[in-house]
Design goal:
alpha/beta, DNAb Helicase, Chain A, Rossmann fold, 2 domains, nine-stranded mixed beta sheet, elongated
Length: 474
C-alpha cells in the first residue's frame, strides 16, 4: 500500500469506526500526513475528540466548515470516497504505521537537503553535522508513543532502571570515589544528572574535580574534562604532583633531581593508562562540548571547569539570561548522554562580605537558573583560607552537599594537601603540615596521605568500600 492510500485508509477507518481513533493518536500527528486535505481532516477530528464531540462523517463535515477547510461539492464526496475505499477499520494500526514510516522518510530527506544546502553556503561542517544529529534525534523521538507514558509504561521504566542496577552494579549512578561524599549523595552522581561544584577561587574546585575524574578513570570509565580555566599542562602537573609528592609549582617551573625525574616518569606511565580526555580550545559553547563528548566512547562523566567561561549560543547583554540558557543546555547535555555532568561554578565576592563566608544556595541566585537546574549542589570551604597567619600546606576541606534532588544534604570532611593536589576522605581532624615541611608528632605526612589514598580506593569489593573511612574504634 502506498503512503497516500494509507493516509486515506486511516481517515476512512476513523470515519467508519471512531473507536479506532485511540490507536491512531498513539502513532500519528497531523504533520505525519503528506496530503494537505488529509492533514486538515485529521486536525478537525483531533479537535472534536478533545472537545468530547461525537466523531462521524456528518459531524466531521460540520467541523470542517467551522475550521474553514470545507470545500463545497468536494469535501462531502471525498469523505464518501475515503469510506468506500477503506477495506476495514480493523487494520487501522497497520495503515498508521505506513504513514508514520513515510513521514520519517520525508524527514530524513529534509535533513539530507539541509546538510547539502548549508555546506553549499560554506557553513562550518562541524556545526552542520551537530545540528543534523539533533534533527535526526528529534525525528526519532517525535512519535506520540515516545512522548506520553501511561501508568504501566512509567512503572516499566522504573523496573528497567532497577534491572540495570542488578545487572551492572552501580550503573544508575557514577561514584565520585570518595565514600563519605558518595554516601552523602546517596551512592554517587546520578546518570543524566547535573551537579554543581561551587566555591570561591582557590578553595580546591578544580583539584577535587580532577581527583574525582582520575578515581573514576582508574575503574576504566572514560571521562571528558573540559577545562576553560587551566591549560592541559597545568592540569597534568596537578595530577603528577598527586602521584609523586613533588609540588605542582616545582613541576611547572623548576629543575628536578634525577630521582624526581624517575618518579615523574613512573607517574606519567600510570596516567597514560587512564581514559581521561581533555579539550584543546580555551573557549567553547555547550554545542561544542557535545561534539567532543560524542568522540569519547563509553563516556561516563563530563567535567566542565567552569560554567562562567562557556560561550552562549545566542548573544545576550543580560548575564542572567545567558547563564540561564547555558545552564539549561548543560542539563539537556546530561540527559542526552545519560551521564552526570559535574560543572564548576565560581562564587562572587559577596560570600566574603558576610560574617560567615560559608557558601549557601542563595549565592547562586545571580548565576541564572543553575540552582534550579542542578540535581546536586556541592560547596567547598576551607576556614584557614581567610586567615593571613595560617600558612599550612595541608588543610581541612569541608565538602557540603547543599542540594540533593535524590538524597539527603549534609557535610563531610577531606584532607587537602595544597602543594600536591592530593585529597583524601578524613573522618578524623587532621593536623596540617607547616610551610617548612617539618613534621611534629602526630602530624600527617604525604606518605600517610598516599597510604590512605591507596587504601580508600573505592572500586574494590563492597565490604572493603564500606569499612574505609569509618570512625576509629574506641
Amino acid at each position: 500500500m502506498r503512503a497516500l492510500e494509507a493516509e486515506q485508509a486511516v481517515i476512512g477507518s476513523i470515519l467508519i469506526d471512531s473507536r479506532c481513533l485511540e490507536a491512531v493518536t498513539r502513532l500519528l500527528r497531523p504533520q505525519d500526513f503528506a496530503a494537505e486535505t488529509n492533514r486538515e481532516i485529521y486536525q478537525v477530528i483531533l479537535a472534536m475528540d478533545r472537545a468530547e464531540q461525537r466523531v462521524d462523517p456528518v459531524t466531521v463535515l460540520e467541523g470542517m466548515k467551522r475550521a474553514g477547510c470545507y470545500v463545497e461539492n468536494t469535501s462531502r464526496g471525498y469523505m464518501l470516497q475515503l469510506m468506500d475505499t477503506t477495506p476495514t477499520a480493523a487494520n487501522v494500526e497497520e495503515y498508521a504505521k505506513i504513514v508514520r514510516e513515510a513521514s520519517l522518510s520525508r524527514g530524513a530527506t529534509a535533513i539530507s537537503a539541509y546538510i547539502a544546502d548549508e555546506i553549499a553556503k560554506h557553513a562550518k561542517p562541524q556545526e552542520v553535522l551537530l545540528e543534523a544529529a539533533h534533527r535526526l534525534e528529534q525525528l526519532q523521538k517525535e512519535g506520540v508513543e515516545d512522548v506520553l507514558l501511561d501508568p504501566d509504561g512509567a512503572v516499566l521504566a522504573f523496573y528497567d532502571h532497577r534491572e540495570r542496577i542488578y545487572q551492572d552494579g552501580d550503573s544508575a549512578y557514577v561514584r565520585t570515589g570518595y565514600q563519605d561524599l558518595d554516601r552523602q549523595l546517596g551512592g554517587g552522581m546520578l546518570n543524566s544528572g547535573m551537579y554543581v561544584l561551587a566555591a570561591r577561587p582557590g578553595m580546591g574546585k578544580t583539584t577535587l574535580a580532577i581527583n574525582i575524574a582520575d578515581r573514576l578513570a582508574r575503574n576504566r570509565k572514560p571521562v571528558l574534562i573540559v577545562s576553560l580555566e587551566m591549560d592541559p599542562e597545568q592540569i597534568e602537573a596537578k595530577r603528577i604532583a598527586r602521584e609523586t609528592g613533588i609540588p605542582a609549582n616545582r613541576l611547572l617551573m623548576d629543575a628536578l633531581t634525577e630521582k624526581e625525574e624517575e618518579s615523574v616518569a613512573h607517574a606519567v606511565d600510570v596516567l597514560r593508562t587512564l581514559p581521561v580526555y581533555f579539550n584543546r580550545r580555551d573557549t567553547v559553547t555547550v554545542a561544542q562540548i557535545e561534539m567532543m563528548a560524542r568522540r569519547v566512547k563509553g563516556l561516563a562523566l563530563i567535567v566542565i571547569d567552569y560554567i562562567g567561561k562557556i560561550l552562549p549560543e545566542t548573544r545576550s547583554s543580560d548575564r542572567y539570561d545567558y547563564m540561564t540558557e547555558i545552564s539549561g543546555a548543560i542539563k539537556n547535555l546530561a540527559r542526552r548522554f545519560r551521564v552526570p555532568v559535574l560543572v564548576l561554578c565560581q562564587l562572587n565576592r559577596a560570600v566574603e562580605a558576610r560574617k560567615s563566608p560559608m557558601p549557601v544556595l542563595s549565592d547562586l541566585r545571580d548565576t541564572g537558573a543553575i540552582e534550579q537546574d542542578a540535581d546536586g549542589v556541592i560547596f567547598l570551604f576551607r576556614r584557614e583560607y581567610y586567615s593571613v597567619a595560617d600558612k599550612r600546606t595541608m588543610a581541612d576541606l569541608q565538602v557540603s552537599v547543599a542540594k540533593n534532588r535524590h538524597g539527603p544534604v549534609g557535610d563531610c570532611m577531606m584532607t587537602f594537601d595544597l602543594e600536591t593536589s592530593k585529597m583524601i576522605t578524613s573522618r578524623r581532624e587532621p593536623i596540617a603540615r607547616t610551610t617548612d615541611r617539618t613534621e611534629k608528632p602526630g602530624q600527617m605526612t604525604f606518605e600517610d596521605m598516599t597510604g590512605k589514598w591507596d587504601g580508600e580506593f573505592p572500586f574494590g569489593d563492597k565490604e572493603e568500600h564500606d569499612h574505609i573511612g569509618a570512625a576509629p574504634k574506641t
